[in-house]
Amino acid sequence: MWKEMSEKTKKCMEDTIIKGDFDKIPIALAIDDPAPVVHVMYEHAYKNKTKDGRLYTEVVPNEFLQEFCKVIEAQGIKGKFSIVPMPLGKGDIVNGIPGVDYAQIEEWLEMCRERVGKQFSFGPEMLTHGRAYNLEDGTLYDMIERDWASTQCYDTLRPYVAKALELLKEKNIDVTGVTSPWDFGIEVEDEYLAALSQAMYDVFEKKDCWVFLRELRHTPGCNRPFVAYREEGRNVVMVPTTTRDHFWWTMDTTDTSKEYISSVADGLITADGKEGELIDVINGGGFPVIITHWQSLFSNGLGTGLAALEEVAKRVNKHLGDRVQWMSHDELMKLTIERMQG
Ligand SMILES: [Zn+2]
């Protein structure tokens, strides 16, 4: 669903979008929906089965994060990694999740801090990525966060985002930005951006942050990061993703063959490095920011998506190694602000 940018954001984009040529074009991977233990997909789409009829697992074991770390370290992949701090409203990363051994949550967060954080920027994907949380009485509303946010304003969004930031801060996760679950806040974009900038300053004392809210594919002229909000010496840099999630459909099949994995990777970059969405984005003057989801890589326990990601990264490094450079969202944010300031 496409929703136009607000007039204010559009104006900001025209003024601040990164311009010019690069010796090496930034490339990044945006991963939505990770959470310790809880498989957010379990309740995500109001269905609990894959297209071919298997139940989604309720849990993503910590071993999967370990496997992910091996891949990103071997291939040098960078980008952003969401952490849903109160996954599906079942509990939270500070006070625990009923039915989950807290040591598992600690172990997951430790791996994030020690390994993922060396290459990826962290940010909450608001509180639950499920039903919205009532800050006043600690219950869950009957609507999901994106629907709740659509009618909110600065005064209600600021404490909501701040609560997500505080939970991560409490666990020593260094946060540099925020991801919207679904397109949380898009209807009230100006108020949302102001609220998250203030929340980031209040909780982390950071004047600059990045936000992931929009996918801008096939939109030449706006397929690079830009400063979407500038007030009182603070900046919010919008980092749009510029591809589809080619790994998503690996959830719906038990095919883990080499051929299948190669065909998934082909959507982004073919084995000869000549075709695919990444090549199209680069040829169109954009920055390739690949979107995927934790569940897309986990593939309901089979890890097919992660294998395809590894294949994509190998192809990128082999064929585009002298044309692109992996960057975290924090690095993209700093680059955008530097360029704006000339
Ligand atoms: Zn999400």
Structural topology:
Elements: H1 7-16, E1 25-32, H2 41-44, H3 62-75, E2 79-83, H4 102-114, E3 120-124, E4 131-133, E5 140-144, H5 145-149, H6 154-170, E6 177-179, H7 189-204, E7 208-212, E8 226-231, E9 234-238, H8 258-266, H9 277-283, E10 289-293, H10 294-298, H11 304-319, E11 324-326, H12 329-341
Helix pairs in contact: 3-4, 3-11, 6-7, 8-11
The chain binds zinc ion.
Condensed summary:
By secondary structure, the protein is an alpha/beta fold. It has helices spanning 7-16, 41-44, 62-75, 102-114, 145-149, 154-170, 189-204, 258-266, 277-283, 294-298, 304-319, 329-341; strands at residues 25-32, 79-83, 120-124, 131-133, 140-144, 177-179, 208-212, 226-231, 234-238, 289-293, 324-326. 38% of the residues lie in helices and 15% in strands.
